Automatic annotation (TrEMBL):
It comes from Streptomyces hydrogenans. This is Copper homeostasis protein cutC homolog. InterPro entries: CutC-like, CutC-like_dom_sf. Belongs to the CutC family. The lineage of its organism: Bacteria, Bacillati, Actinomycetota, Actinomycetes, Kitasatosporales. It comes from the Bacteria. Gene3D superfamilies: Copper homeostasis (CutC) domain (3.20.20.380). Pfam families: CutC. Transmembrane segments: none annotated.
Amino acid sequence: MSNRAVLEVIALDEQDAVAAQTGGADRLELVTDMAADGLTPSTAGFTAIRRAVDIPLRVMLRLADGFAAGGPREVDALVGRAEELREAGADEFVLGFLTPAGEPDLVAVERLIAVLDGARWTFHRAIDRAADRDGLRKRLADLPGLDTYLTAGAATGVDDGLPVLEAEAARTGEPGYEPQILVGGGLRLDHLPRLRAAGLTAFHIGGAARPQGWTAPVSADAVRTWREAVDA
């Protein structure tokens, strides 16, 4: 991947993936069931998308809506899915779980990254629901493979999270702040100038790539508009 800003697009299937790549996406986040805010796709679905495009794919690891990993049985099931996807060739992932107190669920996260075996991964928007963002970052700082945080800066979205995103961007390189900030969650085109001015260089879109809504596929033209705006 070049040094240009990263544009990541959510893809549900091969049609989405091809359109996103055509429009200029650098990377895809693969999910299913957006009614539950994005769950783990099937291994067959991953394989079909992998054959359809040649850009990096980050596969969601989550079996239920929300940011709780569940009990031992649920974590076992998720580990099994991660193993299947890894064996099918998946080499980048998205995950992140919190305890009821809003702390990082290190038991679940460490079990998963053990089977990811060094694969790169994003800690997703669970950080926006954390009791202590800074504390979460520092507790995860030494975990292998973590190279990205997907965050809006606030649970309610980028509109409210802009000051947090700017402050965290200014701390890039500090302990816990080495992973790239991938901005997503209510992101709009008009946010980009302020975010780019703060030094942020990675952006994540889902609904913004689908002008006709989630029941319609990704629009290559919509992605192209974002590509041009991100690069401006």
